[in-house]
Amino acid sequence: MLLAGGGGFLWLRTSLPQTEGELALPGIQGPVEILRDSHGVPTIRAGNELDAYFALGFVHAQDRLFQMDFTRRLAAGRLSEVLGARAIDTDRLMRVLGYNQRVKSDYAALPADFRASVDAYAAGVNAYLDSRKGAWPPEFLALRYRPEPWQPSDSLLWGWAMTLPLSSNWTDEALRAALARQLSPSALESLWPSQPPALRSADLGSPASWQSALGDLSLLPAMPGASNNWVLAGRRSASGKPLLANDPHLDLSLPGYWYLVRIETPTLHVAGASAPGVPFVILGHNAHVAWGFTTTMADNQDLFLEKPAPGAPGSYLTPDGPKPFVTRDEVIKVRNQPDQVLTVRETRHGPIISDIGRAKAAIAEPDEMVALGWACLAPGAQTPEAFWLMNHAADAASFRAALDRFDCPVQNIVYADQDHIGFIAAGRVPVRKTLEHFSQLPVEGWTGDHDWTGFLPRSELPQSVDPADGLLATANNDVRPPGYQPYLAARFDSSYRVDRIRELLSDPKRLFTPADMTAVQMDMLSPAARALLPKLLPMLEGSAANRSIATIAARNLLSDWDYRMAPDRPEPTIFSAWMTILSQKLFKDELGDLYSSWAWWNMATIDRVMFGPDPADRQWCDDPVTPAVEGCEEIVRSSFAETIAALTKRFGDKPADWRWGRTHIAPFGHLLFRYVPILSDLTSRPMVTGGADDTLDRGSPDMRKAPNDFPHVHGAGFRGVYDLGDLDAARFVIAGGQSGNPLSPHYGDLLPLWRDGGTLSIVGDDTGGRLTLKPAGP
């Protein structure tokens, strides 16, 4: 058994990539060098761009083949073929959205230059499939299937897989509709204002989590993306040139979303975060421009209620009378089960989605259907071409022109060349004929009153160039300038993070460095704790329920705390547990089963309802179950007592030992094997981390497991810092490693660097190997 096990392990290791020597491959015009550094980060040097894209496809397949195949299957609705029945709900959603049909037509419409790049990339992926020797990566062996050849249109599926979780208004509308059936109108308006009040964006609270009334699709990201980016003008930097920083936040797993790479050709010089399956750099720089993204939270979706047309089977009502559905049958192959046939119906607003989720009862009447109107599904989207043009931009002006083709998802994009800095919320934002409930509830589709009349012109999107204070920053906050009139969205993330960025970069006399930018990215101060604790702690005075030794010690710790969510300190644990229990006591009785769909560290909402200007918001402090009318002071005291009791049971009776790092741990489970006992332990790389949901060093814990545990499930999967004075010295790190193969030394080797705020540069180092690809044949 030992010999067999050892032999099997050695055989599995043959799935690791070749990184030395030469390979003769068909499909390239000249030799290509692939240099890997000590972390497996490649630099690709080619005589022309098409050969470079070929090599990028080759190295992506070497290191991330299963992830590439999983992503294309996810977006195409083909996971059930290899995962079985557990993936059917996800596949049904993807088939209804029609991504697989869409990418084929989108590919055919690509400009010739970009289509040639996609073709070269696919040829590189397939060259790896045809030339590889030894075992397949472990995931293919575990699932007992082999990947199909890579089609050029498969590269467009990645964008759709990312676009869905970054466009979350439809889940907000579904959740608010469900809440409207459970709460009184005044309670709903207090919890979730339909019209944005004249308050700071922090007062609106965080958007609803992905765990919405539409159902839990476990194979999709756990919650919408969030991110930080900013850019400083050259006059504010030590180099005299602009500084740009970006850290996109997504759910954390292995492998991560991003793959570091540098590409050098006579006409192209790019470096940064690529996405396995895609032939360009998504986040990074070229020889002239650097850029970074955050999600705008723009409202580019609506749920339309549709009614079947009486006496006209297969039709629905429109302002012009009955209109037939556009239908197609989708055959979903399910492993070890019969095929399922799904009939997809589309309306003039979009596909009918109410047949595939749990939301219909919460949204529609029995004789109604729900259609998804989504700007991304409108014809003519050009986002893939925009990325190709961004990679080739010669200056800030041409980069900005490339963004004219950026459609979905709507993103806050900051950019800089040596002389200018800029920002634009780029993408398609619908213009509604009538704006009802600020687009936060489903609307009637049969009247035509809420139809879209087009999209906001690019000139009317929020944007800025070379501002007077030399700083542009976004963090999913409200980016609308004062007096902005067009409707962009009604809900944004709190302003905690963007306010902290501006605070740390406020000194107009200081000349900042790239190291300063990294320090800002790693900042662990909690603005929510700083805002709430001075109001909450005085309310504990004189409470008989808070006089135990542990309670007094915990209060003293919080009173002296510097608000940093550091892993070696107990105060973050006490504060996070307290906010969890306080939130439950404030909202859970009224929200019931919908609470877990609504609550995701909504500390700004806690602040507003308890301490905001509207006394009517204090209704949430009263427990509706008891006959007495409780005030906010009572609920603060009782929640703190329960917090100390819960933490004492979990960690012992010494608050000083309740360190954040004991419970705030990023599991970093494997994409597939985290669901398999034993293999989960073997392939996970848990990391003790700091931060919280509102800190710049994003460390969002899974609130559904609190207050007993605070696993870090959402954070910065990539960090990049760029000094336009020396772009070759740009600094990067990803959460994980370059390889998706658990047997690789580069599976998770960047995690300590990522955790500690370290970075690396991509400089063409070959300490990890030099592989030369040569044309096959004479």
Tell me the strand percentage band.
15-25%
Estimated radius of gyration:
26 Å
Number of strands: 29
The end-to-end span amounts to 48 Å
**Can you say what the CATH homologous superfamily of the domain at 527-563 and 570-658 is?**
Aminohydrolase, alpha-helical knob region
- The CATH level-2 architecture of the domain at 527-563 and 570-658 is identified as Orthogonal Bundle
Query: What's the helical proportion of residues?
Result: 25-40%
The rough form would be described as globular
Low-pLDDT stretches:
198-204, 208-222
Q: Order the strands across the largest sheet as they lie in space.
A: 1-29-2-3-6-7-8-9-16-17-21
Our count of helices gives: 23
CATH C-level label of the domain at 527-563 and 570-658: Mainly Alpha
Tell me the structural class: alpha+beta
Mean pLDDT: 92
Question: What can be said about the biggest beta sheet?
Answer: 11 strands, mixed
Keywords: Calcium, Hydrolase, Metal-binding, Zymogen
InterPro entries: Ntn_hydrolases_N, Pen/GL7ACA/AHL_acylase, Penicillin_amidase_A-knob, Penicillin_amidase_dom1, Penicillin_amidase_N_B-knob, S45
Protein name: Penicillin amidase
Family: Belongs to the peptidase S45 family.
Topology:
Blueprint: H1 2-12, E1 21-25, E2 32-36, E3 42-46, H2 49-76, H3 80-83, H4 88-97, H5 99-108, H6 112-131, H7 138-143, H8 154-163, H9 169-180, H10 185-191, E4 226-232, E5 243-251, E6 259-264, E7 269-274, E8 281-285, E9 290-295, E10 301-306, E11 315-318, E12 321-324, E13 326-334, E14 337-346, H11 360-363, E15 369-374, H12 383-391, H13 396-402, E16 411-416, E17 421-426, E18 430-432, E19 443-444, E20 452-455, E21 463-465, E22 471-474, H14 496-504, H15 514-521, H16 527-536, H17 549-559, H18 571-591, H19 595-598, H20 603-611, H21 632-651, E23 665-666, H22 679-683, E24 687-688, E25 699-701, E26 712-716, E27 718-723, E28 731-734, H23 751-755, E29 769-775
Parallel strand pairs: 1-29, 3-6, 10-19
Antiparallel strand pairs: 2-3, 2-29, 4-5, 4-22, 5-26, 5-27, 6-7, 7-8, 8-9, 9-16, 10-15, 11-12, 13-14, 16-17, 17-21, 18-20, 23-24, 25-26, 27-28
